[in-house]
Amino acid sequence: MRIAIAGAGNVGRSIAQELIENGHQVLLIERQPRMLRPDRVPAAEWVLADACELASLEEADLAGCDVVVAATGDDKVNLVVSLLAKTEFAVPRVVARVNRAENEWLFTEQWGVDVAVSKPRVMAALVEEAVTVGDLVRLMTFRQGEANLVEITLPPTAPYVGQPLHAVPLPRDAALVAILRGKRVLVPSQDDPIEAGDELIFVCTAEVEDAVREVVLGPGSVERTRDSR
Which parts of the sequence belong to the RCK N-terminal domain (predicted)? Predict the structure, then answer.
């Protein structure tokens, strides 16, 4: 894919390096000359320009990009870049960095954002994931809350421990996409049994999260979770 990244600070450069290593073409757009450091990511295409200016984006051929990443440290800039990328250049996928948690509600489809990445939310989710057993932890939100990546670490008391996956009656709009067992990552099949301590990774809509929790952790788990909070 051809991917444009607005903002060539530490975050933007790190994203660029990772994407290049995965075989993608990366364009870094930076408006501050002192931040223009092609030697840091030599395989990327570098452009000195203001990503909030329509003419600069036209010159950079943003319309030819598959993805735009708004990765600056300014939420206002990231929103403007996202809106221009989506409305003026019809970029299929726009990912935006959220710097301040109180601004997260702005990063929606109305501003051209397909995926908003909030550092406070991601860090909180990683903390919860590391210490929580027997509850559902939301790791990431896709497309403004229509679907979430969630994790449940199975306690020994979970009702389907030791049973194959085909015995677990997951609700509609929920899919088990991976099982983390120790250091292994397992692709689930219907005949695989689940074990205590397994980390189950689901993609599901927000509406069925409680139903997933109820099935996987047993009756009353939703109420117990709410009471504990």
Answer: 1-117
pLDDT at res. 220: 73
Block residue for tokens 């203001």 = 50
- Give the containing element (helix H, strand E) for 208: none
The segments of the chain whose pLDDT lies below 50 read 126, 129, 131, 225-229
Query: For residue 123, is it within any domain?
Result: no
Q: What are phi and psi of 23, to 5 degrees?
A: 95, 15
Please answer whether residues 79 and 107 qualify as being in contact, where contact means their C-beta atoms are separated by less than 8 angstroms.
yes
What pLDDT, on the 0 to 100 scale, is given for residue 214? 92
Nearest to 113 by CA among 70, 55, 63: 70
DSSP string, 31-81: S-GGG--TTTSTTSEEEES-TT-HHHHHHTTGGG-SEEEE--S-HHHHHHH
Query: Do 147 and 111 belong together in one domain?
Result: no
CATH label of the domain that carries residue 213: 3.30.70.1450
